[in-house]
Design brief:
Distance between the termini: 107 Å
CATH architecture of the largest domain: Alpha Horseshoe
Radius of gyration: 41 Å
Number of domains: 3
Shape: rod-shaped
Largest sheet: none
Helix content: over 70%
Length: 427
């Protein structure tokens, strides 16, 4: 026969289990389930004792103890809701509705700083949309391909999906359902804010790291195309690289080289000038060369070249660059009839030329002209001989071969030019 003593024992066991759980930071499924089943036992005894003549009433202090323990359990509603196994247990045991401990309800406590997290969520989503729009816009071009289409569409879809999930009623309900067993309700605004922060960080990394990476891939492809003389394809690749990453001096420099080969000198000079703003000393050399060759602006060219030679950021071990700078500076001073200064720079360039892989006729040919202007014909002839010897080793330097041969009297036909072409002074 069920007695009050059994109920008293059950209440005591329930009390011990609750106090044990209270001391634990991490609950085990076994301990929680045992506690809930003990509360079922208490209710079973209460329901059945209510139908029997009670020979011995339960002490008042025991009823008070049960009331206090139930109040403690009620405070754990939010924590019980985070238990993944609770729905499974409830389906298996099928407790009645009045067994409230099986049906915890979310706390109606006002979310912590909900106004703050809500405002930050909106701000972060707005930032994500801005990044997504910028990324997508940069991938749109006149010649779309697979990767361009993916780069344009995916960020926008992802941003709109995430934004709609947080800002629309349906989206919020879906998030709430997902978070029901993973976070207490009072922390849901914070969780939404953290999700928005994660999205913003993703787009930021895509913008600051992903776009430059993609730009470098396009630039590498363009270099390969340029080396194969596929100038139109190379031009497109370099333009795409700059669309994705405008602050890319190497791409501007490469695009300038391509425009030069396409005989679009004005656009080449624009590309070189932009690359110079990014710190490209190679572009300084090439722009100065075009100022000499195309603009006849020898003074501006000399200023650019001297500035580059005195630049503290210039790599002193880059002999290819230094050779080009000094050779072109000597050329500019030759055109200004500053023969002594020109001779000094050209002789420095010739010393550097010995460290280069291939012999370069340019400095020797220019030096020969400087020496002729100073009426040092024997020395000039020696320089012309070296110029001719180096020029005959490379078909691209054939123009120099003609000038040198004529100067030495080996040829009598009139040459079509008396200044180096772009191909002859491409350092």
């Amino acid at each position: 026969m069920l007695t009050a003593d059994l109920l008293q024992t059950a209440i005591a066991d329930y009390h011990r289990q609750l106090r044990s759980l209270k001391e634990l930071k991490n609950w085990s499924d076994q301990s929680v389930l045992a506690m809930l089943r003990e509360r079922d036992r208490i209710q079973f005894l209460i329901d059945h004792l209510a139908q029997q003549p009670v020979t011995k009433a339960l002490a008042t202090d025991k009823w008070l103890l049960l009331s206090e323990d139930d109040a403690l359990l009620g405070q754990w509603n939010d924590r019980l809701l985070t238990l993944d196994q609770l729905p499974t247990w409830r389906n298996s045991i099928n407790p009645p509705e009045h067994h409230w401990w099986w049906h915890p309800k979310a706390s109606e406590t006002k979310p912590i700083l909900s106004w703050l997290w809500g405002g930050l969520t909106i701000a972060l989503l707005t930032l994500s949309l801005a990044f997504a729009k910028d990324i997508a816009t940069r991938f749109f071009d006149d010649a779309p391909g697979l990767w361009s289409s993916i780069g344009a569409i995916v960020p926008t879809i992802l941003a709109l999906f995430a934004t709609g999930g947080v800002l629309t009623k349906v989206g919020q309900q879906a998030i709430d359902t997902y978070l029901t067993h993973r976070a207490p309700p009072r922390y849901k605004p914070l969780v939404r804010c953290l999700l928005a922060l994660g999205l913003a960080i993703t787009f930021f990394l895509g913008h600051s790291i992903g776009l430059p990476w993609a730009a470098h891939q396009y630039h590498s492809a363009g270099i390969n195309q340029y080396q194969k003389s596929q100038l139109t394809n190379a031009q497109t690749s370099f333009q795409r690289a700059l669309r994705l990453h405008p602050d890319f001096p190497a791409a501007n420099h490469s695009l300038g080289l391509t425009h030069e080969d396409l005989r679009d000198f004005d656009q080449a000079k624009t590309n070189y000038a932009t690359a110079i703003q990014g710190g490209s000393l190679e572009s300084v050399n090439n722009l100065a060369r075009l100022q000499i060759l195309d603009d006849k602006d020898y003074a501006s060219a000399a200023v650019l070249l001297k500035t580059a030679l005195n630049d503290p950021q210039r790599d002193p071990n880059d002999t290819v660059l230094e050779y080009g700078l000094r050779k072109n500076l000597g050329w500019a001073w030759l055109k200004q009839e500053r023969h002594l200064s020109a001779e000094g720079e050209l002789r420095r360039a010739i010393i550097l030329e010995t460290t280069l892989t291939d012999p370069q006729p340019d400095a020797h040919c220019l030096l020969a002209q400087v020496l002729e202007a100073q009426q040092k014909q024997p020395d000039a002839n020696t320089a012309w001989e070296t110029c001719l010897r180096h020029a005959t080793k490379n078909p691209q330097d054939d123009h120099w071969s003609g000038i040198a041969a004529k100067a030495l009297g080996y040829e009598t036909e009139t040459n079509t030019a008396d200044t180096p072409s772009k191909e002859e002074t491409n350092q």
